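W.,

You were right to be curious about this one. When I first looked at the sequence I had no strong expectations either way, so I just let the prediction run and decided to look at it fresh. Below is the sequence, 273 residues in total, followed by the output.
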Amino acid sequence: MSYLQTADGTQLFYQDLGKGAPIVFVHGWCISSDSWESVINELPQQGVRVIVYDQRGCDRSDKPVDGYDYTTLAQDLRDLIEHLDLHEVTLVGHSLGCGVAARYLSRFNTGRVVRSVWTAPTTPFAIQTQDNPDGIDPAIFIELLGQIRADRAGYVQNLAHPFFAGPKAELPVSKALLEWGVNITMSASPFAAYSMFYTCINSDQREEIKTIQIPVLLLHGALDMSAPLHLTSKKSLDLLPNGTLKVYPEGAHGFYMVEGPKVRKDILEFISK
């Protein structure tokens, strides 16, 4: 196993697999890099170099009590990319990981990342305000933060079914896969769980997304209940100078774990263009 020590001394677990054009994957809220399994499991055999890592506070990485704002998380990503001296990078994020990618691309990219894929992004801004009238009532998020603090295990368990299935009663994955997703999410620290959620909800990234000039492919599930399509990818698309959106009609928030081969194909086609 490989570890990187970031600028502030945090140890991050990462895997560097295969040779070829590098793709760096950034996971979402409290889940680990293992969640990319069905997307990446054939890429090293297809001439692609795959780099996945556990963000601070998650699974095998260090679990400090702070550092869960987008700037610090993006600095961690920068440290990884520079440590491995990666160039011509495709940067892939999921959910909160897309917020990390947006912060990296707007503040720290020195030409190393040339394209990005955002799956089920939570960008650009979730909360209802005067200039974001169709956002979500902040009282809802305050309640959810309270649930995370009071009963994190219950919150994650209740989140699992809609993560994979959206509003549908039928689960599109095995119960074993659902339980595995719950377990790796619970491996994150309580500090990361609360603070990452707070960062994801309260970060207004509308202006910084306008500055991202590289091509960005947005992949989003039409049944996503955690990051509704009309509030996230469609608004992000309007802000990106060079964005493209593809909608998965049956996809929920975790569609990348359900339809891994299809996501992999879309990423490879995007790179080839």
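Here's what jumped out at me. Residues 23 and 90 are 5 Å apart (CA to CA). And, maybe more interesting for your project: The mean pLDDT is 97.

Coffee later to discuss?

I.
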